[in-house]
Write a structure and sequence with these properties.
The chain is an alpha/beta fold. It has one domain: 3-Layer(aba) Sandwich (Rossmann fold). The protein is built from ten helices and 14 strands. α1 packs across α6, α5 packs parallel to α7 and α7 packs across α9. The chain is globular and about 55 Å long.
């Protein structure tokens, strides 16, 4: 019998890369997407739409997903979320509804439907302000934003769920980066490459010292593949695991310099007078290295930058004012609202 996998939030930034990877490694699987299509139009090239690789696409709000969508599903890959700090700040109530409450409800429905594997896209941002040694899964979390709070609240709800037959894996992803058919430029590395291409200058708004662990979207997809197949004998029924690589903990200034080196003629400027950015954390990925040796990140920083550089050169949508474009997800939501298409609770 072919595996049936439901991918929520498949029409965002990470989803298309995940779907392409799952189709490649599970060619006979039934892949079903579920998405409200908030960002469906934000394709950066004229390539065929990513959803062509799906068996079926369902359009719907994750808050409204019903048990009928989970009938016969073997694995849920839960990506659907209000996906960054600026959006979480602007839309704090729907962030709580979508990222936390709807996620907990989805897991409850999945368990009742007999879903075998539930994979939740969590975040290393739950560590917040974390000076000192790289943070391990057993360390205290200090979420600083609505987005980070929603992620740890969902992790706790999943840990408390009465679902003895469902394996739950919370992947605490490092900061996402890399090329995608629905590229976001409100992520640090992606922003730097776009700035280098459009203006020739990378402006670091902080003093450059904050730490960020990075993971390419391609390696996020590899981790999701691992989590789908994880046995409860390998990590327990519920597992929260830092997902990335130790050598990919970088300071922001390092990222700017790496991009400037890769993009001809690009320069960097750092605001050394900036107040400290509290969102700084290094992360220990030793557990993931031990548990998933065959699914370790394979994209180096140089490779991620190169794919972004080439992808943005070919993009049909990149302009010098990209920070006021649909490549910034908050801008997209606000544009929908101004046009009367979306209400303040982020419903069509």
């Amino acid at each position: 019998m072919n595996m049936r996998i439901l991918v929520t939030g498949n029409m965002g930034y990470v989803g298309p890369v995940v779907v392409a990877h799952l189709r490649a490694v599970f060619p006979r699987a039934e892949l079903i997407g579920y998405d409200s299509a908030l960002f469906a139009a934000q394709l950066v090239s004229d390539e065929p739409i990513p959803e062509r690789l799906l068996t079926a696409q369902i359009f719907g709000d994750i808050r409204d997903l019903g048990p009928e969508q989970l009938a016969g599903i073997d694995a849920v890959v839960h990506l659907s979320a209000i996906s960054n700090d600026p959006m979480g700040t602007r839309f704090e109530v729907p962030t709580d509804e979508i990222n936390y409450r709807a996620s907990a409800r989805l897991a409850t429905l999945a368990a009742a439907a007999g879903v075998r594997s539930f994979v939740f896209a969590s975040s290393c941002s739950v560590y917040g302000a974390a000076d000192g040694a790289p943070r391990k899964e057993s360390d205290e979390v200090q979420p600083l934003t609505a987005y980070a709070r929603s992620k740890i609240a969902t992790e706790r709800a999943l840990a408390d769920l009465d679902a003895p037959d469902m394996t739950v894996t919370c992947l605490r992803f490092a900061t996402a980066c890399g090329m995608s058919p629905r590229l976001r430029l409100d992520l640090v590395l992606n922003d730097f490459v776009a700035a280098a291409l459009t203006s020739g200058e990378i402006n670091v708004l902080s003093d450059g010292t904050p730490w960020r662990p990075l993971i390419d979207v391609r390696d996020m997809a590899r981790a999701i593949e691992w989590a789908i197949g994880r046995s409860p004998d390998h990590g327990g029924r519920v597992l929260a695991i830092n997902t990335g690589a130790d050598h990919q903990n970088y300071q922001v200034a390092e990222l700017a310099e790496a991009v400037a080196t890769a993009v001809p003629g690009a320069t960097t400027s750092i605001n050394h007078q900036a107040p400290p950015d509290k969102r700084s954390y290094r992360v220990d990925f030793g557990l993931y290295k031990a548990m998933a040796p065959d699914h370790q990140p394979t994209s180096s920083l140089t490779m991620s930058i190169d794919r972004l550089y080439r992808g943005l050169q070919a993009a049909t949508t990149l302009t010098a004012d990209f920070r006021q474009s649909d490549a910034m997800r908050l801008y997209t939501l606000e544009r929908h609202m101004e046009a009367g298409r979306l209400n303040p609770l982020i419903r069509w």
